[in-house]
Each structure stands twice: as C-alpha cells, then as structure tokens.
Design a protein that fits this description.
- The chain is built from 1 helix and 8 strands; from the N terminus they run αββββββββ.
- The mean pLDDT is 92.
- The chain is globular.
- With 130 residues, it is mainly beta.
- The chain binds zinc ion.
- Zinc ion binds next to loops.
Length: 130
C-alpha cells in the first residue's frame, strides 16, 4: 500500500533564561554542568535539583571523560546537507554524561571535550581521543 506523506516542519521555542550561562560558555570554550549540594550533577544543566529541589551551582565539567556509547549517523537530517556522515557519542565525565560530536571513537576511549562552531554557525560540544 502506498502512503502519501507531506513534510511538516516544526519550530520550538525553548526558554533559555536559566541556561544562558551554558550557551555563552560554549562560545567561550567552556562546558558547564550544574551540581547540587546533595551530590547530584546535571547535564544539560538544571537550575534546580530535581531530587531535593535546591538551587544548583555552575561548574565546568571534568577535563577528561570516557566514551560509553556512540552511533554513526549516515542519514543526514534536513538543514545539515553540508555534513558528511558523523559520529555522535556519549561520554561520562564524573557524575554526568555529555553528548558530543566525535571523529572515530570506541567505547572506553578517554576523551577531552571542546567546543567549536559548526558550518551552520551553531556552537557544539566535540570529543577528541587523548
Ligand atoms: Zn539536590
């Protein structure tokens, strides 16, 4: 059976008032998480701890992380036509996990995270194996 379809572009407006420090940090080469006095860490940052309700504090993530998972994206999404297949990875940095773009990685690799602007002008987190 043939199913007709049509494109439905969606745009979302996400409130960023409490996370401006995170977005500005990327432009300054800093990757922030938030931590609570109860010991929990949040990435992406949360302004309040979802466990105890306390306000959290901003701190930079640890210098080194370890790759826990990755996937290679071969089907390039609309808007990223300039991109070649790319790797998205998740790495553990202390008590948080960070998602970032990477070249060749494997589970268990020790990585350093850094920020850079992609070809569409968006600041992102990248990993390099160390
Ligand atoms: Zn807490």
């Amino acid at each position: 059976m043939y199913i007709e379809s049509r494109e439905l572009p969606l745009k979302h407006k996400i409130p960023v008032g409490k996370t401006v420090k995170y977005w500005k940090g990327l432009e300054e080469g800093k990757i922030y998480k938030t931590v609570c006095r109860c010991g929990r860490g949040y990435y992406p940052p949360h302004s309040e701890c979802s466990f105890c309700g306390s306000e959290t504090e901003w701190v930079e993530i640890e210098d080194y992380g370890v790759i826990e998972a990755f996937t290679v994206v071969y089907t390039i999404p609309k808007g990223f036509e300039w991109s070649k297949p790319y790797t998205i990875a998740i790495a553990r940095f202390g008590n948080i996990r960070v998602m970032g773009w990477a070249e060749e990685v494997k589970v268990g690799d020790k990585v350093k995270a850094f920020t850079a602007k992609d070809q569409s002008g968006v600041w992102k987190v990248y990993f390099e194996v160390v």
